[in-house]
Design brief:
The chain has 209 residues and is of the alpha/beta class. It contains ten helices and five strands, in the order βαβαβαβαβαααααα. The chain has two domains: 2-136, Response regulator (Rossmann fold), CATH 3.40.50.2300; 144-204, Arc Repressor Mutant, subunit A (Orthogonal Bundle), CATH 1.10.10. A five-stranded parallel beta sheet has the order 2-1-3-4-5, sandwiched between helices.
Length: 209
C-alpha cells in the first residue's frame, strides 16, 4: 500500500505517518508540502490514496483536489482539514473527494476512513451523514454559498475574515481587478450589497471562525 500525505506542516505529516504506520505496517509513505510537490509525487509514483490538507501554501486544496481528479480520476483522495465540516465537507465531496475528516478526529477514525476509501467507498463522519440525510428529507433550497464556484467561495471566506481586495490579490497571486470581479460575483449571487452584509452572513452561518 502506498499512501501520499500532503500537508504544509512537517509535524502534521510526521504525526499522520506514525498513526497510519501503526495500522498499516506494510505501507510505504510519501510526503508533499505544497501543490507542486503533490503533482510531482503523483507523476512519479502509483499511489493508492492521497491524504490532502485543504489549506495548501501555494494553491487552494480545492484546486489541487480538482486537478488530481483530472490527472488521476481513479485515485482516492481523503481530505483532512482543520476547518469544521460545515465549511468545506459537502463542497469537497461534490468535487470528487472520497472523504472528509477534520484534524480533530480520533486516530482510529482516520484509519477507518483510509480503509473505507481504499475499499472503493466514501467516508463521512456520523455527524455529517446525519446532516446530509436530514437535508435530503426536507424540501429546502440550496444555501446561497452553494452556488459559488470554489474560487468565489475562497474569496468569500477571505473577505469575511476582514481582508481587503489588495491583500486577497497578493495571497492568491491574482490581480486586484480579478479579485474585485470575484467579489462582485459573490455579492450578486448571494444577493448582498456590501462587505459588511457578507461578513455578517458568513459569521451567522459559521463559514469563518
Amino acid at each position: 500500500m502506498r499512501i501520499l500525505i500532503a500537508d504544509d506542516h512537517a509535524v502534521v505529516r510526521h504525526g499522520l505517518k506514525q498513526i497510519l504506520a501503526d495500522a498499516f505496517s506494510q505501507a510505504v509513505f510519501g510526503e508533499a508540502g505544497n501543490a507542486e510537490e503533490v503533482f510531482s509525487q503523483i507523476g512519479k509514483e502509483p499511489w493508492d490514496v492521497v491524504v490532502l490538507d485543504i489549506s495548501m501554501p501555494d494553491r487552494s486544496g480545492l484546486e489541487v483536489l480538482c486537478d488530481i481528479r483530472k490527472a488521476r480520476p481513479e485515485l482516492p483522495v481523503l481530505v483532512l482539514s482543520m476547518h469544521p465540516e460545515n465549511q468545506f465537507a459537502v463542497r469537497v465531496l461534490r468535487d470528487g473527494a472520497s472523504g472528509y475528516l477534520t484534524k480533530a478526529s480520533a486516530p482510529e477514525e482516520l484509519v477507518g476512513a483510509i480503509k473505507k476509501v481504499l475499499a472503493g467507498g466514501r467516508y463521512v463522519s456520523p455527524v455529517l451523514a446525519e446532516k446530509l440525510a436530514a437535508d435530503l428529507s426536507v424540501n429546502t433550497d440550496k444555501a446561497p454559498q452553494e452556488f459559488l464556484s470554489n474560487r468565489e467561495y475562497q474569496v468569500l471566506r477571505l473577505l469575511a475574515s476582514g481582508k481587503i481586495v489588495s491583500e486577497i490579490a497578493g495571497e492568491l497571486r491574482l490581480s486586484v481587478k480579478t479579485i474585485s470581479t470575484y467579489r462582485a460575483r459573490v455579492l450578486e449571487k448571494m444577493r448582498l450589497r456590501n462587505n459588511a452584509q457578507l461578513m455578517h452572513y458568513a459569521m451567522e452561518h459559521h463559514l469563518v471562525w
